[in-house]
Design goal:
The protein is of the alpha+beta class and about 575 residues long. It has 12 helices and 24 strands.
């Protein structure tokens, strides 16, 4: 262990704290599964020894994902008032409204230039509105909203391992109940021919182009392009003829001419659920309905609450989102003895060959050997596997690129490959975020594009690394698509406002900059958010703030309304 890490209450991070954290997590459970831990022991001041019940190749990922808890500060209210050792400290958390963190100036690593960050929870429409009206600097939006142009903002499309797919209930109705007492079984999707036919009939590239607006790629499985992905498991899709043949070979036929094949008096029809309010999953679901219809399969979609999804996920298909940096997710989704455990293996899939490969991958002590077994679980030499050409336990549809509108004066640093929303989102590199370090405050309309000579000469004081996957024209249409990483510079010299030393407000990934000496944010609704915005003209009732000289962090002061002092005006009070 390093010897310069401290908790935010000033106490050092000790080996005893690490041992306590892992021991407690193993006993009490939580989002990070360390139940395979037998013991955690502090050997000396800077060494901790972890002993497992049995080998687990993925346990090393627990060392990254489990935050260390101070034993002296751990109590019943710790989840609401945590004490950590990271780059920020929790200031306030109003559930469902906002979360405020402040920079930890005692952090041992790279320190953020922003003193405070406020996360405000909104929906897609409110996020887009906030970006359009100039209230935010970073807007995380779905691909369907990413094709338009917002003046003063650039589009960033970041590679992810986040995917969308529909799970199938792979067992028939036999009156079984889950451990939670929920019904199990679907007589239609229990037929492998139905599951394979859906996989072959779906046109995944069309889903990428139409629903994702090109911001993504077709998905072969849950771990595409990872070190443990088996490329041999990929199929040639958009093949309705192949889907029809699979159904015919399995005894499905349209004997009554209604366009839906049937077998033994049972129509090839099932329900596909998606979370209401998720426009991307809705678009995917409706598109899949149209794509499989020519093969004679009828899918009915329903947008419902997550509460209802939990009640029906063992009888109806669900359009889920998954995607992790940890191959253990495959184990969670397909291991037979995890069936019915929360969202894990919700379709009650079971395969002895797949179970053997998954167990062998988890028990391997060599990473290369583990990857061989992870790949074999997808498709092995005997044709066994959970992927489309074998058991087709899921129909994986698309891999997403996460799309963000980012203010031209905000640099997000180097991007990470992002997972499905619970691990390393765009905020993973938040300590690297920075704003322009010099230049007068400027409204969006006043920001000129960078002169070509400035771009080539690299003389800009603040470079915006856009990493766009495509060029977007003035009407928001994609004209060029490339996988080559490039740098996009849209700012002229000294065009950026002063952002360093300000407060950042994040609305589901939306960023507003506010001067650090202003009034507390409180808990306003998004429409009435009071925020001090360095980069935009004053709106509403002004509360000016000045700085000794542009481009520095020295001696911030605050004057009342009507002040005649010159400087970088930073504050704006919006109505409400």
């Amino acid at each position: 262990m390093r010897d310069d890490a401290e908790f935010t209450d000033g106490e050092p991070v000790t080996a005893e704290d690490v041992a306590y954290t892992f021991t407690t997590a193993a006993k009490e459970g939580g989002l990070t599964d360390v139940t395979s831990l037998r013991s955690a022991k502090a050997v000396d001041d800077d060494t901790v020894e972890l002993t497992l019940v049995k080998p687990q190749s993925t346990f090393v990922n627990r060392l990254v994902s489990l935050g260390i808890v101070p034993e002296h500060a751990h109590g019943k209210d710790y989840a609401q008032k945590p004490v950590g050792s990271g780059p920020f400290t929790l200031v306030d958390w109003a559930k469902g409204e906002q979360l405020v963190v402040a920079r930890n100036d005692d952090y041992y690593g790279e320190k953020s230039p922003f003193e405070r960050i406020v996360f405000v929870f909104t929906d897609e429409d409110a996020s887009l509105a906030a970006a359009r009206t100039g209230e935010v600097h970073l807007a995380g939006l779905p691909a369907s909203l990413a094709t338009q142009e917002i003046p003063g903002m650039r589009l960033e499309a970041i590679t992810s391992i986040d995917n969308r797919g529909l799970h199938f209930v792979t067992v028939p109705k036999e009156g079984r109940k889950s451990p939670a007492g929920l019904p199990i079984g679907n007589d239609v999707t229990a037929d492998r021919a139905i599951r394979q036919a859906v996989n072959y009939a779906v046109d995944r590239q069309a889903l990428v182009d139409g629903v994702l607006e090109g911001f993504g790629s077709p998905a072969s499985g849950p771990v595409d392009n990872s070190p443990w992905f088996n490329p041999d498991s990929a199929i040639e899709d958009a093949d309705v003829d192949r889907a029809e043949q699979l159904l015919a070979d399995a005894g499905w036929a349209d004997t009554d001419g209604d366009g839906v094949v049937e077998k033994g008096g049972l129509d090839a029809a099932f329900t596909l659920l998606y979370p209401a309010g998720d426009s991307l999953r809705q678009g995917l679901a409706l598109s899949v309905v149209d794509q499989v219809k020519p093969a004679g399969i009828k899918i009915t979609t329903e947008g419902v609450s997550w509460d209802e999804i939990y009640q029906r996920l063992h009888t109806d298909s669900v359009l889920f989102g998954w995607g992790s940096h940890d191959p253990y997710e495959m184990y969670s989704l397909y291991k037979s003895d995890l069936a019915g455990t929360d969202l894990l293996n919700a379709g009650y899939y079971s395969s002895k060959p797949v179970d053997r490969h998954l167990d062998a991958a988890l028990a391997a002590t060599d990473p290369d050997r583990a990857n061989e077994e992870w790949k074999a679980a997808q498709l092995d030499a005997q044709g066994n596997g959970f992927t489309a050409s074998a058991d087709a336990a899921w129909a994986w549809l698309v891999n997403l690129e996460h799309t963000y509108f980012v203010d031209d004066c905000l640099d997000l640093g180097e991007p990470h490959i992002e997972p499905h929303g619970h691990g390393w989102p765009i905020t993973a590199s938040i300590s690297q975020w920075s704003g322009a370090a010099d230049g007068p405050a400027s409204g969006r309309a006043q920001r000129p594009a960078a002169h070509p000579s400035l771009v080539r000469g690299g003389v800009l004081p603040f470079l915006v690394r856009s990493r766009l996957r495509r060029v977007v024209d003035a009407r928001g249409r994609r004209r060029v698509r490339t996988r080559r990483r490039r740098v996009g510079l849209r700012l002229a010299h000294r065009a950026c406002p002063l952002l360093v030393g300000c407060e950042v407000v994040v609305l589901l990934g939306l960023v507003v900059v506010r001067h650090r000496s202003t009034f507390p944010l409180g808990r306003p609704a998004v429409a009435g958010l009071a925020a001090c915005v360095a980069s935009y003209p004053l709106r509403g009732r002004a509360m000016p703030a000045t700085v000794d000289r542009p481009g520095t962090m020295g001696a911030w002061t605050r004057d009342g309304p009507g002040s005649s002092r010159n400087g970088n005006v930073c504050c704006t009070a919006l109505p409400g």
